[in-house]
Amino acid sequence: MVEIFSASILLGIVAGLLAGLFGIGGGLVIVPALVFLFSTQGFPTE
């Protein structure tokens, strides 16, 4: 549980930096990373 929490915090920081510096949407970074994180944690795909 701590791993996914710390990964989510780091993901938010990275997405915020990329959005601020380059103007790309946060969803471009967050959605694929969350799909990867949830699949490695064993969450169901539904």
Which features would summarize this protein structure in a list?
46 residues, mainly alpha, 2 helices, 78% helix
Descriptive account of the structure:
There is one protein chain. The protein is mostly helical and 46 residues long. The chain has one domain (2-41). It contains two helices and no strands. Helix 1 (2-22) runs antiparallel to helix 2 (27-41). The mean pLDDT is 86.
Strand proportion:
under 5%
Query: How far apart are the termini?
Result: 20 Å
Given the helix and strand composition, which structural class is it?
A: mainly alpha
Profile the largest sheet. Answer: none
Total domain modules:
1
How does the overall form come out from the CA principal axes? flat
The mean pLDDT is 86
| Tally of separate helices | 2
Helix content: over 70%
What are the segments in which pLDDT stays under 50 over at least 5 consecutive residues? Answer: none
Using the CA coordinates, give the radius of gyration. Answer: 12 Å
Summed up:
By secondary structure, this protein is mainly α. It is built from 2 helices and no strands.
List the helices and strands and how they pair.
Layout: H1 2-22, H2 27-41
